[in-house]
# Entry
Amino acid sequence: MQELTHYIGGAHVKGTSGRFADVYNPATGEVQAKVPLANGEEMAKAVAIAAEAQVGWAATNPQRRARVLMAFVGLLNRDMEKLAEALSREHGKTIPDAKGDVQRGLEVVEYCIGAPELLKGDYTDAAGPGIDMYSMRQALGVTAGITPFNFPAMIPMWMFAPAIACGNAFILKPSERDPSVPLMLAELLEEAGLPEGIIQVVNGDKEAVDAILHDDVIQSVGFVGSTPIAEYIYATGCANGKRVQCFGGAKNHMIIMPDADMEQAADALVGAGYGAAGERCMAISVAVPVGEDTADRLIEALVPKIEKLKVGPYTSGNDVDYGPVVTSKAKANIERLVQTGVDQGATLVVDGRDFSLQGYEDGFFVGPHLFDNVTPEMDIYKYEIFGPVLSTVRAGSYEEALKLAMDHEYGNGTAIFTRDGDAARDFASRVNVGMIGINVPIPVPLAYHTFGGWKKSVFGDLNQHGPDAFKFYTRTKTVTARWPSGIKQGGEFNFKAMD
# Structure
């Protein structure tokens, strides 16, 4: 069995804690590797190496730092097939979906190549008599990211690309469920010319997380995962004086107006609800048709599309729609929530509970489920299922549909499907959700805009990637300068207003 490593100081390093976690092949249920779980001593060593290396990296001009990222983009494209296969093997995604995972991270790296422009400060000439003022954006120092299993390539790149472009060192604590791709990314960064020690990959569990949160050298922490853990990391990190951004759970609604193109809406719901087995924080998990006729037409359009979904391992080809969920525990939780939906009175229109894949009976596959007549009091509506389960909540009016999205505790993403521009503009203006799609089911912004939700989907005041990332990973320093004319005079003891 393969024993994975940490990546510290430019080399693969075996774990010394004596603790390991199993890495599964979700399609077969077999353990394919074990990953070391770092202790505080191992984390401290990685941080010390990063702190020493960061000084020289911050002193490297932004253009040279950008050239490293430019070379990294080329290597990502070169190794796309290899990265996608490793990602699919540990996560379970289809190969096209795995390539999309890498590609969306790559696009953020491309944006960060513009660091020389994005890091420019401001300058005011002659702010007062003989006085100039200017601001500088300077690196924080050592930064850290704690990333989830569902995007093992994209989200690490969303964090470390801007951090490194700004002149920081970065400690990455990836998910222990699929750690191979983050290790591969670190190798590629150093092949691209990144100095040793600037990117460190330290595998671990809560012990490693707590070591990050309590290390005085680490200046900032980014996190993506569940809301309870996001709250813990945000509170603990802030209490320890760190800059923290945490992204939590989601329950994304899609409103379908009576005038919507029903085939288009149904296709969008199937892709957004069941793609990646629903293991996306931007997955649409709640369909809200407005009016009984709209709801009936929607269910009629959805059922045959869902029943035709092809579920299987990534090795079965690119026509597989989605693969297994990541662990047996995740599968059990999805099945438990599905049963609560039945028990609480929802109508299970498409029942995937008996799904079994010949030859892969021990894999973590979950069949597609479609619920109708779901109400806000039901568990399947309140909680993030993170699986291939779509709930339909019938709304009597546009205002009722809008209220459903606004009243839910999560506010990551939402969408409306309509031909009515006025309804779309009103929805985008009023809904208290961070990312809005208008006839777009998964409104993940491109790299030059920012990604972030509202309400209990986010903790912190700056979003991921885009301009916010360069604010998060730098501090502003403002300088007020006066150069004497050459004649020394006594000191001024009174504060004088500028003319």
